[in-house]
Description:
CATH class of chain B: Mainly Alpha
Strand content of chain A: under 5%
Oligomer: heterodimer
Shape of chain A: extended
CATH topology of the largest domain in chain A: Four Helix Bundle (Hemerythrin (Met), subunit A)
Largest sheet of chain B: none
Number of helices of chain B: 3
Largest sheet of chain A: none
Number of helices of chain A: 6
Order of helices and strands of chain B: HHH
Strand content of chain B: under 5%
CATH architecture of the largest domain in chain A: Up-down Bundle
Amino acid sequence: MELKQFVFYIFALLTVGSAVVVVTVRNIVHAAFALMVTLFGIAGLYVFLQADFLAATQVIIYVGGILVLILFGVMMTSGKLDMKLKLERGQLFWGGLVSLLLFLLLLPVITQTPQWEVADDGASLEPTTHRIGEMILQKEFLLPFEVASVLLLVALIGAALISRKEVREEE
Amino acid sequence: MTLHHYLVISAILFTLGIFAVLTRRNAISILMGIELILNACNLNFAAFSRFVTPPTDLSGQIIALFGIVLAAAEAAVFLAIVLAIYREFSTISPDETDTLKG
Lengths: 171, 102
């Protein structure tokens, strides 16, 4: 087996294995840290897909932003250290059944997808940042870019408004 | 590595995320499941961008970037709502917060 393939399988196993830990472990802090490993694994897979800018963005925004936000949420909402997650038997059974059926539904879809393969296989690796910037700022993705910035502003104001303490005025 | 490898990884992540959303009884764990689902989507976009479109066309990667932006906004609003619910009910189990009256 080639070294490259070996590394790919390591990243794939890391991603899937830690995702299993995320959904099964009972301690929510452990789940958050397992999610961090999953996100790093996906960043590694992006590198295999020659998406270097996407991998860097994944690490910065997911691991540096969203995961820290999740940990803050865990700290502020688990009052008396009740971080253990309760699971109900029946819910576990039906949830597992539904997700298994969904996976079995997805598998034939995947096997019917044509088996594309890339010929050059990393021989002509060049940075994607320049081209992504060009496509966003000069070509067809300018409008979605602006809409995304407005959406971020709305989310910022909304989050601050919802989570602030309510101040009641004296009557 | 073919396209199928990435699609299978992404399908596994997607179903695990669905499983978390269906079985977890803590809102933040549900958010983790949603993040897994969004990551599976982004991985699919990046994989198709690499294998199907010519190397000069990076539309798939850009859509994955927008997906990351949306996930960030969604997580911020989600956690703000969870904090407000916790302040009101002292719990964030979706089963117990079943009234809309403040």
